[in-house]
Design a protein that fits this description.
The protein is mainly alpha-helical. The chain has one domain. 85% of the residues lie in helices and 0% in strands. Helix 1 packs antiparallel against helix 2, helix 2 packs antiparallel against helix 3 and helix 3 packs antiparallel against helix 4. The longest helix is centred in the C-terminal third of the chain and has 48 residues. Keywords: Membrane, Transmembrane, Transmembrane helix.
Amino acid sequence: MGNLVVRALRAVLTVVLTGTCLVQALMVWALATKPVVGSLPLTPLRVATIIGMASVEVAVVCVWRLVTMVRRGTVFSDAAFRYVDVVIGAIVAAALVWFAVTIINAPGQRADPGVTGIMGGIGVAILGVALIVYVLRMLLAQAVAREVEAAQLQAELDEVI
């Protein structure tokens, strides 16, 4: 991975992390100071937003660590699995939060149930992203196994020579 790509990815991750922290701070401020007015259940939606942003922040930090490992050439190791597993968990948590938002929002959508269906579909799509990352984790596991095998073969070859 080139330096330009690493720097661009880190810039994007920084913007996302800053934005999610800002949204979280605003939601906490709204929870503390703005009373709920109207029929929309704002308090559960604000709490769901805070939890959802936290899952995004966890995933961003883990991707940052993985990029660091790629830059150092140590990504094909068992240590990378921990970060990938946390990313998968964060995506699943975000999907569950999204399903909770869908359930909270559903009673207000009785006149237009299609909105609830679309929101449920988005939640399934988020779970699909978790499955894609899981498949990538399996590819990483195969690459790590090949790396270990190559190191063993190299060691045997060095002994023969």
